[in-house]
Write a structure and sequence with these properties.
Helix content: 25-40%
CATH topology: Alkaline Phosphatase, subunit A
Strand order of the largest sheet: 5-6-4-3-7-1-8-11-2-13-12
Largest sheet: 11 strands, mixed
Bound molecules: zinc ion
Radius of gyration: 21 Å
Structural class: alpha/beta
Distance between the termini: 20 Å
Shape: globular
Number of strands: 13
Length: 500
Amino acid sequence: MAENGSTTPDAAASGSGQVKNIFVMVADGAGFNTLEAVRQYLGDPRGGPAGELAVDQDGFVATAQSVYPLDTRSEPLPGPAGLRQNPATVYSPAQNYDFTKAERESADGFARGFDGYDWNRGTAPDSANTMTSLMTGAKTYNNAINVDGTGAPLLTLAELANSEGKATGVVSTVQFSDATPAAGGGAHNVSRANRTEIAEEMFKAGVLDVIGGTGNPDYDDDGKPVSEARYDWIGKDLWQSLKDGTFKSDDGSSWKLLQDRADIQAAGSGDPTDLRLAMIAEAFIGTNFYRTGGDPKNEAPLTVPRLETSPTLTELSQAALNKLGTDDDGFYLAIEGGGVDRAMHGNNFGRMVEEYLDFDAAVKSVIDWVNSPESEASFEDTLLVVTADHDHLLFGPEGEAVPYQRVQEDRNGDGVPEYQWFGNGHSNQLVPLYAYGAGAEGILALAGKEDSVLDANGNRLAGSGRDYTDQAELGAYLLDQIRPGVGEQANGSVTDGWLL
Ligand SMILES: [Zn+2]
């Protein structure tokens, strides 16, 4: 476990300031079957080979990570008990791959599948919890934004990058103050539900140079102005002062606010603003996922036109990079494909594919940007991590008979792969973890556990056989990549630096 911030010797040795720039890209909710679904969708509809994602190209290392919570409780708990790992929630191949037919009655209309699925339903983390682990190296409870199990604030990757003089930013296809971008942006709160407080911290703290996402009080989810503003995701005073240019962060700095898509596109090139950059797109909850029209539960991907008014995740990322990429000390950028998780909660397979394609394009654009002559970065000094925060229960069409069946290629000629949902909430399964560039091999070295159920003779009875690390171990490793002089610290004992 990584609560004490230690990493393996290999990992620490390969880090120690080698990484100047760091990207953490999270496709929210996207498990192995999400990626498989997109590969099948991109593939030859006549049963030919599956398509390729950005992470399938040469140069990426591929492994997996566990994402289990400290506990599934939704509030902090004072004292030592608050930091105790609940053993029942720890990822366990034996419990995950329990193929006993589930006998419990379905309360929610979904097939129960197998006892392993029920174990997943009962032990799953939320995005606040998981993004906190990735950002701080600590496990915590569901709802926690960069606080530990007792509610104490934790040092985040964004803050460490900022204190090292790096430029920092976070962009998302959903509300900028929702759990994943909030944690990715270095906010702290005992509950993700305190959205306007979180927004306030993100803008005031002086940690972030770029904030991008939705949550715009003045627009609906079709990009149309609303008659009465909704201050669910950002408080009225903060929003008004951002709009009229009077808002100041605690350090006295000002922000440039962009809402119009054309302005966000234009910010992707040319001289960047000297101010901190806020891009709050003309959308309330999501850039595209919540647009009306079509039949989201049944529609094929890309059959309902995407909104002209919403930026793509690529456009948000490029505008962020044009601003952050000029810092001589390097940068940290978190990029979230937030609509993937929303689509999976809605069991909207087609829009899940769409939202992952938007994310996948952003991965490609980031690689192209690093490799372009205009950028001073290269993959010699830049680490790109592409992963998910957690998974759902999406399997193949014979999922009631075939446990953990992968999503299958299209069989009825509609161009859509074959699948079945086993719930509309999160799971506790392993998620894909890819890395590219400086420090990527060190991530592969973290993956010391194997996703297998073994018999007494060590023969594999069940499981994917994948090697995996844990999200908190990965988080500790990422902090170590930009922590100065960690290589000189004996025993990796950097515990004192972890609590703010
Ligand atoms: Zn979710």
